[in-house]
């Protein structure tokens, strides 16, 4: 056995990077891996929705691109295409940006100064359904670099997982309803179903569960 995964089993990646030189470099790094395939690369997130629907990637890797569009794209993917993991390649571990990206729903945060081998590990981590935080990023924003494994998908549906995360982040029922695109009554139904599946009772229990699974971290 060669250890090379069949093409259909490779991690399918879309790279979003404003600078062509960096975009090409990222593509070369990833395509050297026998278990990875870059199916598309884009200079910005403007056409990302069409590309995701057309190529059905496992991971979208964001490099340097328009900040507002990047955040909007991550929010859209988290809400509408939760099976697609997002990994953000950051130049600086700016706390306000970190919080913005976490709130948007990114699955991974990676610093550009880290080794290429670590980038590949980060891609595999988020593609496998776990969260990834670069150790230096974790130190800045007070996260644990060793985040627990699955993002709750074994127990919860994609929509339930999304509602759980918003509850743990402190959003009100009305805010969650607007973000998810459902009624407040439906949010209550999701919450009851989540509690039943996880054997929990109070919102504080949901928050603690989310913390243990690495979905959010309490702020000091």
Automatic annotation (TrEMBL):
<dbReference type="InterPro" id="IPR016032">
    <property type="entry name" value="Sig_transdc_resp-reg_C-effctor"/>
</dbReference>
<protein>
    <submittedName>
        <fullName>Response regulator transcription factor</fullName>
    </submittedName>
</protein>
<keyword id="KW-0597">Phosphoprotein</keyword>
<dbReference type="InterPro" id="IPR000792">
    <property type="entry name" value="Tscrpt_reg_LuxR_C"/>
</dbReference>
<dbReference type="InterPro" id="IPR039420">
    <property type="entry name" value="WalR-like"/>
</dbReference>
<dbReference type="InterPro" id="IPR011006">
    <property type="entry name" value="CheY-like_superfamily"/>
</dbReference>
<dbReference type="InterPro" id="IPR058245">
    <property type="entry name" value="NreC/VraR/RcsB-like_REC"/>
</dbReference>
<keyword id="KW-0238">DNA-binding</keyword>
<feature type="domain" description="Response regulatory">
    <location>
        <begin position="12"/>
        <end position="127"/>
    </location>
</feature>
<dbReference type="Pfam" id="PF00196">
    <property type="entry name" value="GerE"/>
</dbReference>
<feature type="domain" description="HTH luxR-type">
    <location>
        <begin position="149"/>
        <end position="214"/>
    </location>
</feature>
<keyword id="KW-0804">Transcription</keyword>
<keyword id="KW-0805">Transcription regulation</keyword>
<dbReference type="InterPro" id="IPR001789">
    <property type="entry name" value="Sig_transdc_resp-reg_receiver"/>
</dbReference>
């Amino acid at each position: 056995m060669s250890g090379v995964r069949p093409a259909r089993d490779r991690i399918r990646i879309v790279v979003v990077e404003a600078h062509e030189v960096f975009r090409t470099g990222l593509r070369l790094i990833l395509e050297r891996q026998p278990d990875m395939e870059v199916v598309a690369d884009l200079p910005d997130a403007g056409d990302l929705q069409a590309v995701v629907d057309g190529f059905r990637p496992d991971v979208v890797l964001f490099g340097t691109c328009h900040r507002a569009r990047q955040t909007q794209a991550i929010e859209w993917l988290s809400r509408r295409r939760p099976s697609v993991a997002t990994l953000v390649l950051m130049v600086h571990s700016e706390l306000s940006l970190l919080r913005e990206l976490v709130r948007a729903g990114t699955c991974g945060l990676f610093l550009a100064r880290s080794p290429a081998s670590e980038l590949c590990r980060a891609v595999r981590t988020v593609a496998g359904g776990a969260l990834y935080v670069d150790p230096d990023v974790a130190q800045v924003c007070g996260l644990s670099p060793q985040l627990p494994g699955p993002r709750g998908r074994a127990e919860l549906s994609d929509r339930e997982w999304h509602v759980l995360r918003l509850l743990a982040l402190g959003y009100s029922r009305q805010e969650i309803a607007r973000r998810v695109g459902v009624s407040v009554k439906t949010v209550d139904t999701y919450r009851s179903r989540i509690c039943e599946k996880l054997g929990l009772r109070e919102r504080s229990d949901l928050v603690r569960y989310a913390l243990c699974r690495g979905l959010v971290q309490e702020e000091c």
